[in-house]
Design brief:
heterodimer, A: alpha/beta, TIM Barrel, 2 domains, eight-stranded parallel beta barrel, three-stranded antiparallel β-sheet, B: alpha/beta, 10 helices
Chain lengths: 327, 299
């Protein structure tokens, strides 16, 4: 069976581009704090979601709606409404992380398929099966802390489908369990759907150096005139002991394209591409490449070589936790 | 308001670990949670000391619970988690994985690393057997107030991160090992020399974070010194104090004095800095614009 390509869409135009490029499945979110890519100018209004789902279905693609932040105490209605409106729009599934919201969806919208977001960081078969039994979860997006053999072991112990990230931005911390951005800026992925937000970024030139700061903390510093990378907190350059380096992670992005055959053997159902903030041309290119790759794997052919490297951030890529030595 | 001591987040020598709990038996705290939270590789070094420490604390009249790991990925970690449920001591879950191992109907408490952000999740946990919930340190005061009320309605005690370096992230990667050019499986226990974590500063020298193996904490030490009354009025029933290598038993006593109204917030925070050997304080996750902010006077 051909592995399913799950592709991001930050806008209706990106959704249409992804569908036309051959994405089996698109994931997207409403334009509010209910989704973990709550960036200005991104995401879908209620009407756009209805139209987007209809367009995808006409072309044989599915749509998953990510409602994967953690509802704010006292304001759960906003998240409940998002689940309801995803169902009204005809979404094929919702992607949820919060147990309270999963319980709500299972009770009030039991016929709406539920996927477990990477934000739930379900990292072993026991908890995955628990989510299946407790909330009827049909698919889990695995956190980026697992090696390929560990993913295979999980699939041996569960009937719940697994989906893994193969391309794009890379969290180095267990997703949904990181408050670094809150500490530096007051805004976080879990509560606000943003990490290292642009609203708190400033570039400061001083004595021939250009510093990229987040919430007042220097995350990168380069010589004047050099391009300063965006100050994503966990990819920053810091000092500890005698060393000054990218102590958590280098400014790399994930590309596990070459691991697709192993991931297929490990029993993975779907391959996920990160990047709802990306342009439609980027999305279309990535989809085409991955679609070609999964079809090659399905037919037992060699993978098309190196097509994605130029699309990666700063040209530097990693296969992340899929290789055990990453740890 | 009660005081709970959370599990030691750092890797201490076994004798220092045991000394802490011997001392805490005499300290003015109500409840102690102990065991390994951060890294399963540390546990063999002090595992045999855990049950004796539990006994010492119980004999001194303390409530005691054992923590789960914060992130369960390996087979042996699943087994550890399973064994925890059978140890005969109350379990504090810090990864929902534990629920897959607890017999249905068995009560448990919930630690700060479980994402309890709203009433729906709180009620679900109560329906599963939770009797006490320590809220995530990330929550602002408005959320704490709403959840404390929901906790009272549901009949569970609500606890708040009261003091200590803030657990900000957990990862599959060991940063201490990476710093030494090693990988996690061959870490050679690079974290053992940093009993309060290793300072991570920005490239221009500003202390920012603290590295603790697979965990990343704040460099500043969170303190609810200025919010004890507000939290108490909100219905929060306990403050959680997280162990540090210097002056921790005095720290517990100072919070007790502040709760009893014997010292004010200025006095408390001055003393906290002094007994810890100069830690910087923060309370911005609860009330500030940024988590690192501090509402007391500048150091």
């Amino acid at each position: 069976m051909v592995m399913e390509i799950v592709c991001p869409a930050g806008t209706p135009a990106a959704l249409r581009a992804a569908v036309k490029a051959g994405a089996h499945t698109i994931y997207c979110g409403f334009a509010d704090e209910t989704n973990a890519r709550n960036f200005p100018g991104l995401n879908f209004s209620r009407d756009e979601m209805v139209e987007g789902v209809a367009f995808a279905h006409q072309h044989g693609s599915k749509v998953l709606v990510a409602i994967n932040t953690f509802p704010r105490a006292g304001s759960e209605d906003l998240w409940h409404a998002a689940v309801r409106d995803a169902k009204i729009a005809g979404a094929d599934a919702v992607i949820l992380a919060d147990p309270g919201l999963l319980a709500y969806a299972a009770e009030h919208h039991s016929d709406l398929r539920r996927h477990l977001s990477v934000q739930a960081a379900a990292a072993n078969a026991d908890i995955i099966n628990f989510y299946g039994a407790e909330f009827g979860v049909k698919r889990v997006v695995l956190p980026r802390v697992l090696s390929v053999p560990e993913i295979a072991a999980i699939n041996n112990e569960t009937d719940i489908e697994t989906e893994v990230f193969v391309f794009g931005g890379l969290c180095v911390m267990a997703e949904g369990r990181c408050s670094l951005s809150s500490y530096a800026t007051g805004l976080s992925p879990n509560m606000n759907g943003v990490c290292s937000p642009a609203s708190h970024v400033e570039y400061v030139e001083d004595h021939g150096a250009l510093s990229a700061k987040l919430g007042g903390y220097t995350i990168h510093s380069v010589g004047a005139g050099e391009p300063a990378p965006y100050p994503t907190l966990c990819k920053g350059c810091f000092s500890a002991g005698e060393k000054t380096a990218h102590l958590f992670e280098d400014p790399v992005s994930l590309n596990a394209e070459h691991l697709i055959p192993q991931l297929a053997k490990a029993g993975v159902t779907a391959l996920k591409i990160e990047g709802r903030q990306r342009s439609r041309s980027y999305v279309a290119q990535v989809v085409k490449n991955f679609r070609a790759a999964v079809e090659a794997v399905d037919q037992g052919r060699a993978l098309p070589e190196g097509m994605l490297a130029r699309l990666s951030e700063g040209q530097a890529v990693t296969s992340g936790a899929y290789k055990k030595t990453w740890r | 308001m009660e005081l709970t001591v959370g599990p030691n987040q750092f890797f201490w020598k076994a004798e220092d670990w045991s000394t802490l709990y011997d001392d805490l038996a005499q300290a003015p705290v109500n409840r102690v949670v102990l065991g390994e939270l951060v890294c399963s590789k540390r546990l063999p070094f002090y595992q045999d000391a855990i049950l004796p420490a539990v006994e010492t604390l119980v004999n001194a009249g303390k409530e005691v619970a054992l923590t789960s790991l914060a992130l369960v990925t390996l087979k042996r970690e699943s087994k550890m988690t399973h064994d925890l449920a059978e140890a005969g001591v109350e379990v504090e879950i810090n990864d929902l994985t534990v629920l897959a191992h607890l017999p249905k109907g068995m009560s448990f408490s919930v630690g700060p690393l479980v994402n309890v952000y709203n009433e729906g999740t709180l009620r679900w946990l109560v329906s599963r057997g939770a009797t006490r919930i320590c809220l995530p340190p990330e929550l602002p005061l408005a959320s704490v107030e709403t959840l404390a009320k929901a906790g009272q309605e549901a009949g569970v005690a609500i606890e708040v991160w009261g003091h200590g370096r803030i657990p900000l992230a957990i990862s599959g990667r060991c940063y201490h090992a990476r710093l030494h050019g090693r990988i996690k499986d061959n870490c050679q226990f690079a974290c053992e020399d940093d009993p309060d974590g290793l300072e991570v500063a920005t490239s221009d020298g500003e202390p920012f974070l603290s590295m603790n193996g697979v965990q990343t904490l704040s460099d500043s030490c969170a303190s609810m010194a200025y919010h004890i009354d507000a939290l108490s009025q909100a219905g929060v029933s306990a403050l959680r104090l997280s162990p540090q290598s210097k002056g921790f038993v005095q720290t517990c006593a100072l919070y007790r004095q502040a709760i009893e109204g014997e010292i004010d917030a200025d006095h408390l925070s001055d003393e906290l800095v002094s007994v810890s050997g100069g830690m910087r304080l923060s309370d911005g996750l609860l009330t500030g614009a940024r988590g690192a902010d501090w509402s007391g006077k500048a150091a």
